[in-house]
Write a structure and sequence with these properties.
Layout lengths: L1 H23 L4 H22 L7 H6 L1 H16 L3 H27 L8 H27 L4 H22 L4 H22 L6 H23 L5 H21 L4
Helix pairs in contact: 1-2, 1-4, 1-5, 2-4, 2-5, 4-5, 4-6, 5-6, 6-7, 6-9, 7-8, 8-9, 9-10
Keywords: Membrane, Transmembrane, Transmembrane helix
């Protein structure tokens, strides 16, 4: 069984790569929907296998959050992306991201001697940042190109960030009753931030980076606070990093 699960990590990543390559050559909505269905089926089947083949287990639904949003945000991002080399690069990044998450999940469940403490938490944190950027870029493109209302984008970003934040805190072994207020605040602030950023005369990539920076700052501070890591230097480090990146972004951004 362990050998099967080990091979499944590689097979799933390879299947994701092949499906994304198919997406790059898709020219109809029907083909796009097929690619999305296949990607989600691959991720769901692999997580289902790793979590004991039980859909009713909380572990399945909690572990599937990050890879589900990674592949779907990556798919949406590719739809709007131009340039063959750039699209290939994003395809590789999404595939590697899925492979890393599945590999760490495999070690977490089946090979604990090789699993390093807090690896799953850290990997989820990094992949969530990538997901927020890909998702927000796609939504801002929808707002500009298809005139989708900004409030719909705000709701979508709130759902995304709410689930990613919950999953991140859950992996840190924080009970729902401990984290729900914090997740609610982060979710509401995300919606307000999205609406504010949508009015900026900057590119979709700058806007998405601002949303990602907001997510990084809020979840980083909240995560440490909930884990009782409340030293001033930790808070100061997050604020310093966030403010420095914000200043650099705004000074170097191309204002439309």
């Amino acid at each position: 069984m362990i050998l099967l699960n080990r091979v499944l990590v590689w097979l799933s990543a390879a299947a994701v790569l092949v499906t994304l390559e198919f997406l790059l050559r898709a020219d109809t909505l029907y083909q796009l929907l097929i690619a999305a269905a296949v990607l989600n089926a691959i991720v769901a089947a692999t997580i289902w296998q790793f979590t004991g083949r039980r859909l009713r287990k909380a572990a399945f639904w909690n572990f599937i959050i990050t890879p589900f949003f990674v592949v779907n945000s990556g798919l949406a991002f590719l739809v709007f992306l131009e340039g063959e080399s750039t699209r290939q690069l994003v395809t590789i990044i999404v595939t590697v991201a899925v492979w890393i998450f599945l590999k760490v999940t495999f070690l977490y469940f089946f090979f604990r001697p090789k699993y390093e403490a807090h690896t799953l938490e850290n990997i989820s944190s990094y992949l969530n940042l990538i997901t927020v950027f890909l998702f927000c870029t796609s939504v801002f493109n929808l707002i500009i190109l298809l005139r989708v209302p900004a409030w719909l984008g705000a709701i979508g970003s709130m759902v995304l960030v709410g689930l990613l934040s919950y999953q991140l805190f859950w992996i840190d072994n924080l009970a729902f009753r401990t984290q729900w207020r914090t997740v609610a605040v982060i979710t509401l602030v995300t919606g307000e931030l999205f609406l504010a950023v949508s009015f900026l005369p900057t590119s979709v990539y700058v806007n998405a980076l601002l949303m990602t920076l907001g997510y990084y700052t809020m979840t980083g501070l909240a995560r440490n606070w909930l884990l009782n890591i409340r030293e001033r230097r930790v808070i100061a480090r997050y604020l310093l990093i966030s403010c420095s990146i914000l200043v650099i972004m705004l000074l170097t951004a191309k204002w439309i």
